[in-house]
Each structure stands twice: as structure tokens, then as C-alpha cells.
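Appendix B. One record, verbatim.
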Amino acid sequence: MFDIKSFFKREVEKKLINVDDYIFMPERVEMELEGGQLNCVLNSDGRVDIFYSKEGVTEVGSASRKHPFTAFEKELYHGIYDDVISDLVKEVDKIIDGSSKYFRRGQLLPFTAALSQNPTDANKF
């Protein structure tokens, strides 16, 4: 899914601080958060990718590096990316709490045709 808000926010942040002048050592920070798994990844180009997974649902957000001379973990602990993280948590919770009008948990889905045991020769015409 393309997030236009993150795109514009990243472009504005690039104008404020030109992270293209720096090369960052890639880092990854993982932690459990509100019953899910949060992964924050600093890429070498200064982009911060944030992944939040809970109950099989994953949402991804992106931000630009805010302070190039500060350690990445320190930025995380000071809450610099908390707005992106809270948006991801809300979206995942919204998906988990939602329900479909077409599919119900108690409804059995039809089985598809079984695949054959012996696959056909792919080189045969």
C-alpha cells in the first residue's frame, strides 16, 4: 500500500535536513509492543522503515532520519518516531477488530481441487 502522507512528509524532511549527504550504518531494533512485534530498521540512505506485526497482520511505515549525528537507538528512546509507530499500531488494531460482511469465522470455505501427486514434466510440450 502506498502511503502518500509518509511520502510528502519524507520529502519535506529531506528539504530540512539533507540526509543524502550521509551514509549510515544499517541498524535494526526489535521489540515487543502492545502484544505485537515492532521492527525499526535504519537503512544506509537515511530512511527509517518501521514494521509492526500482530496476530498475522503487518503494517509498514517509513520516515526520514531526523538527527544524523545522534545514535539511532537514542532517537527511538526519545520518541522521535512515536507518531509513525502509533499510526501503525492503530491501523493494525483497526484491521484486527474489523470484520467482513462476506466471511465469518464460523463459516467453512469450500475446498479447492486437490493437486496431483505426480507433477507433469515442465519440459514437455
